[in-house]
Amino acid sequence: MTLTNRLKNVLDCLKAPSKAELKDALLRLDITLADLSNLPKPLEGKPYNRELLYKSEEVELLVMNWSQLECAPHDHGNSHGWIQVITGTSRNSVYEVKGNGLPAELFHEYYEEGKYFYAPKKAVHKMQASNHTSLVTLHLYSPPITRMIVYDLEKCAACIVSDDCGAWWPEEQYEKVKEIRLRMAADDQENNNL
Question: Which domains can be identified in the chain, with CATH numbers?
Fold first, then answer.
């Protein structure tokens, strides 16, 4: 059975899938690096290059091939999903955002080949290849991601990005759906005034 047929067999029947249903679908797909013969090469100056493997009104499945750069902190809009490490090791940093404030890193975790981790709705995180590994990840989201928010911690800003922009600060004006000025935490503001 071709990969396209496997994807259709497993993913076509999903309707507003729960967290458990999404993970079960990813496990049933059982995708390995050997299945991804036309893997996109990492992009120069970007954290990753991606390829859309499947998309319906309910779900989307993407493969990402990572460079050694980290992506920007971001959410997945109103989508939730699972990330599978196909090869390499991922460093995943999780953030807390209070109101219209600057995201604060809470912790980071490492996920090696074969591991899965969940991305809840509106949760903010960033990823990167760890230990100079060649990182390839598979991402299954529901519904397909739209209105993702990307954060620039140095600019103290956030931006809702176009659906074709990745998890980095947009370079083209058309990729910026809406720019949002964030407020700094009180402690950070005091340090900047010194």
Answer: 3-146 (2.60.120.10)
